[in-house]
Design a protein that fits this description.
The complex is a heterodimer.
Chain A lengths: L16 H15 L5 H12 L5 H9 L2 H7 L1
Helix pairs in contact in A: 1-2, 2-3
Chain B lengths: L2 E7 L8 E4 L6 E5 L6 H13 L28 E6 L2 E8 L2 E5 L6 E6 L5 H4 L2 H12 L2 H41 L7 H8 L4 H21 L2 H31 L5 H15 L20 H55 L21 H85 L8 E5 L7 E7 L2 E4 L1 H4 L2 H18 L5 E6 L7 H15 L4 E6 L2 H8 L8 E5 L17 H10 L5 H22 L14 H7 L2 H6 L1 E7 L6 E7 L1 H9 L2 H8 L10 H18 L16 E2 L5 E4 L6
Helix pairs in contact in B: 4-5, 4-10, 5-10, 6-9, 6-10, 7-9, 8-9, 10-12, 15-16, 15-21, 16-17, 16-20, 16-21, 19-21
Classes of the chains: A mainly alpha, B alpha+beta.
Chain lengths: 72, 763
């Protein structure tokens, strides 16, 4: 019996529940301007790979968004 | 991927290769077999293939069970399980190294629940329960990031505290300077800021210059004392050397010429004579004269000459010491020259000279003049020290002020960073809690829904799975009982209710995983379900089977087999197989499971049907159909103690009005399988004819009766054929009997391939 996979992403690659959770967290932090859009990408990568460190959080969060984006 | 065939050899009861073919298009396989016929062997084979181990022997006090996994008399290396699917063959074989899998990419995921394990999850402690579900709520990566975030927050808090403390420390130092300076102006900070405007580099250069000149001066200071000591030492050593030399000369005059050479000869003679007990000749001249006291004479002369030797040693030592003292004095002069040069060099540097005393007289060339020079330099030296202190204080003030500003800045930054991180932590924690809560809620809801299917209206479906907040890896299971929530079901539910709850939780968890790639195996789990709930459990299992790649349920529950045989189950959805008696020589055997209707058709289709068998089978099938119809339409039949009605009672109970109204719509796909074709069959002609010839059943198919001699075989075949026609009209082999009134206008079967009219008996 052929089944249609229940894909959760528009790219066609199924996201694991944890990846969905990470995406949701990053989305909320971005909406609250606690991280910038650019930092969000890095945050998502690091959370997905399990490599988010204490300093990583401080680098991403503590620096004012405008300064951080301008520096990149 | 569709299952085609399972082969098991030398695993547990598979003493001969066992092959279980899977029916095409059916993802539910029900294996019926009496106890000991090999149901668990099939489950074991699947478990070995999917998990590389067999757990059916666990908790039986056998210790290591691996040795019992192979069939009695076989070696482990003979164990083979092979699963053929539409994608290929996956095979598990056993070597000394363990279970090896060919085509591991086709290895199935097996979720297996055995009767003995149904309560394991419920009875396990909360931590073990958590282990069972952690795969579904595993947010390890998020938790790691969350832990790092907490550490970041802790770091920031600590740094913030330190920065505030350092600001205070800086202020204390600056205030100290300010007070030392007489507390001028309006405050320490303002004062410090004004003083700190001085250019630091030149100050630091002057301080360095002052430090250099003061160091050079300090190094000169010890020379006078050292010089006096060195001179005195040299003089004393020279005097001692002269005295020792004179003493030696005097001693030497008291002994004969050549005494020094004789001393060596006498020492050699003493060593030579010492071991000789009786000297008979002089070792030099070999004369035998005066040999009796030769040894004593040599010893006396050696003793006398040793004094001279001592005097000589004293002389030599005194001479050496005098020489060394002289060298020390010379060395002191050299060091003095270097110290002078160093001072001159430091003195020549321009950086230190601003606003301080300058020594105009150079350092004297000899140490003898140094004390006077040092005395003249003392005032300047004190001036330098004071100046260096003043300048150093300015540098410290500047550094203190810079540190103050730096720490104030850090404290400000950290004060902003801390609430930001705290807010982020709140978002992450909330999201994780919500995620885990949603998963557990979904599982809880599913468990509740499944449980409601089995125990409808009992008010027990509010099952809650939740994590203990205090201990994250701890799962609580709570239920409603007696109108009260949050009770542990283990304390209030009956054994049977707990069993079905365990089953529901297991299925809900298995569904939560990658169920489309999972083979769900339930090994005889119906045994402990009490009779009233069995049908509902079966119905629930049928429905849940659709969520999995394939389901294999084993059972020795006899009614399930009978219901299958009579088409009461959704046979179209499942493949029902039966196992025959197991023997060591014959192994596990499939004996098939043929529905009663199919048996009747087979009897009829033979070239020379056995009349008695055909009539007998047709009679039973007809009774079943009439039983169904009279129940559906509440037809009156005579009340009687015990069960069973005869055809003579059942057939007339279908009234003429009802008989005339009875018709079945048979829905089937046309040849192209693109359209549904409906054929309407009136039941009245069949039932009326059967009513007329119903005695055939008794005459030919039930008893020995001489009256049957009068009947033609064709009469009996005709009776059976009518029954078969009625059965074909009423019952679909795959979708069973029209039992559902959900349409509101007719009775239909599970696939809606039979629509029985009318819905109600005509009045």
């Amino acid at each position: 019996v052929d089944e249609t996979p229940d894909f959760n992403t528009t790219s066609g690659v199924a996201m694991s529940p944890t990846d969905e959770l990470i995406a949701s967290i990053v989305d909320q932090l971005t909406k609250l301007s606690l991280v910038t859009a650019r930092a969000a990408t890095e945050l998502r990568e690091k959370m997905t790979t399990g490599s988010m460190s204490a300093q990583g959080w401080r680098d991403l969060v503590a620096t004012p968004a405008t300064t951080r984006d301008a520096a990149k | 991927m569709t299952m085609r065939q399972l082969e098991i050899d030398s695993v547990r009861g598979a003493s001969v290769p066992f092959v279980l073919p899977f029916a095409k298009g059916k993802r539910l396989t029900i294996i019926y077999g009496e106890n000991g016929n090999g149901k668990t062997t099939i489950c074991d084979g699947l478990e070995l293939l999917g998990k590389g181990a067999i757990t059916s022997l666990d908790d039986r006090g056998l210790g290591k069970t691996a040795r019992y996994e192979q069939t009695l008399g076989r070696k482990r290396e003979q164990m083979v399980v092979r699963l053929t699917t539409t994608d290929g063959i996956c095979c598990a074989s056993v070597t000394k190294a363990g279970v090896e899998i060919d085509n591991s990419e086709l290895r199935p995921t097996i979720a297996i629940l055995r009767r003995a394990s149904m309560l394991k999850l419920l009875e396990a402690d909360p931590a073990k329960r958590y282990e069972a579900i952690k795969g579904f709520i595993d947010v390890g990566r998020v938790e790691r990031a969350e832990d790092a975030l907490r550490k970041a927050l802790k770091d920031v808090e600590a740094e913030s505290k330190l920065a505030v403390s350092q600001v205070q420390g800086n202020l204390d130092i600056l205030t100290g300077f300010w007070h030392t300076a007489g507390a001028p102006g309006s405050g320490a900070l303002q004062w410090a800021s004004q003083h700190a405007n001085t250019e630091t580099e030149s100050i630091q250069r002057q301080v360095a210059g002052l430090q250099a000149i003061r160091t050079a001066l300090t190094e000169l200071a010890p020379f006078p004392a050292a010089y006096d000591l060195a001179v005195a030492t040299a003089q004393a050593a020279g005097h001692a050397a002269q005295q020792a030399a004179a003493a030696y000369r005097a001693a030497l005059e008291n002994v004969a010429t050549g005494t020094e050479e004789i001393m060596d000869i006498l020492h050699a003679a003493q060593r030579y004579l010492s071991p000789i007990a009786e000297v008979t000749a002089c070792p030099l001249c070999l004369s035998g004269d005066k040999t009796e006291d030769l040894k004593a004479s040599v010893d006396l002369r050696v003793e006398a000459l040793d004094g001279l030797k001592t005097t000589r040693s004293v002389r030599d030592k005194a001479a050496k010491e005098a020489l060394a003292a002289q060298k020390d004095l010379e060395s002191l002069h050299s060091r003095y020259d270097l110290a002078r040069d160093k001072f001159a060099h430091a003195h020549a540097a321009p950086e230190w000279k601003a606003n301080v005393s300058i020594i105009r007289v150079p350092v004297p060339p000899t140490i003898e003049g140094l004390p006077a020079w040092l005395a003249s330099a003392r005032t300047a030296s004190e001036d330098w020290e004071q100046k260096e202190g003043e300048l150093t204080a300015v540098v410290s003030l500047k550094a203190g002020l810079a540190s103050y500003h730096q720490n104030v800045s850090a404290a400000d930054r950290l004060a902003k960073e801390e609430p930001c991180l705290r807010q982020v932590l709140g978002v992450v924690e909330s999201a994780r809690h919500a995620f885990v809560g949603e998963v557990l809620q979904a599982i809880s809801s599913d468990v509740g829904a499944l449980y409601e299917e089995v125990h409808p209206g009992e008010g027990l479906s509010r099952i809650i799975l939740q994590l203990d907040e205090a201990r994250r890896s701890s799962l609580q299971i709570e239920a409603r009982f007696g109108g009260q929530d949050d009770l542990p079901p283990m304390a209030y539910f009956s054994q049977s209710h707990l069993d079905t709850l365990g089953l529901c939780i297991f299925i809900a968890l298995a569904k939560r995983g990658d169920s489309r790639s999972t083979i769900l195996v339930l090994d005889d789990v119906l045994t402990s379900v009490d009779e009233p709930h069995v049908d509902r459990v079966i119905e629930m299992l049928y429905r849940q089977a659709q969520h999995f790649q394939h389901c294999i349920f084993t059972t020795h529950y006899g009614p399930w087999r009978q219901k299958y045989r009579w088409g009461f189950l959704k046979t179209g959805d499942c493949d029902f197989v039966e196992l025959g008696s197991w023997t060591l020589d014959g192994g596990v055997k499939l004996v098939g499971a043929v529905p009663e209707l199919e048996r009747l058709r087979k009897l009829l289709s033979g070239p020379d049907p056995d009349v008695q068998s055909v009539c007998s089978k047709a009679g039973v099938v007809l009774e079943a159909m009439l039983n169904f119809l009279t129940l559906q339409y509440q037809c009156p039949v005579p009340r009687r103690v015990g069960s069973g009605y005869t055809l003579g009672e059942l057939l007339p109970s279908v009234s003429k009005k009802l008989k005339d109204a009875l018709k079945v719509e048979v829905l089937a796909a046309d040849a192209s399988e693109m359209q549904v074709v409906t054929q309407t069959i009136a039941l009245e002609p069949i039932l009326s004819e059967l009513d007329k010839i119903r005695n055939v059943r008794n005459l030919s198919g039930a008893h020995f009766n001489e009256l049957s001699f009068e009947l033609l075989d064709s009469d009996a075949i005709h009776f059976a054929q009518l029954v078969a026609d009625l059965a074909s009209a009423l019952i679909d082999d795959d979708h069973g009997w029209p039992k559902s009134d959900k349409s509101g206008s007719h009775w239909s079967n599970s696939g809606d391939t039979r629509r029985l009219h009318p819905l109600k008996k005509p009045s």
